[in-house]
Amino acid sequence: MLLEDQLCFALYAAQRALTSRYRPLLEEINLTYPQYLVMLVLWERGALPIKTLGTLLQLDYGTLTPLLKRLQANGLIRRERQVDDERSVQITLTEEGVELRERARAVPAAIARAADLSDRETREAKAVLERLTANVSAH
Known about the structure:
- The protein has helices at 7-27, 33-45, 50-57, 61-73, 95-104, 106-115, 119-138; strands at residues 48-49, 77-81, 89-93.
- The protein is mainly α.
């Protein structure tokens, strides 16, 4: 029952360290870490319904909605009800949201330098974390 033997603490400490390293980088582009994750998905996939965005980010509607409202208030996204299904809200990037991608391009490289892992170590760590998430979620 030692703290240092607990996987949960190692994950917690790593997550806090990583998020802390992201903070100053994201402040430069006026995003929080959760907002950055939303923008990453939209930059990659384009316009999406809120439901799909929540699924991809593993966030519930109640957590996602305030993030989207703030991004909309900052002029980075639009939320639009679908004509064919008014229950569905589509999230699209504004021109400013699209342009922000260029300013955000330096973030992954800065994080990679801070992590100081080889490409192989990064791939292996990511694979283990994805498997851990899938295994724990299945139970």
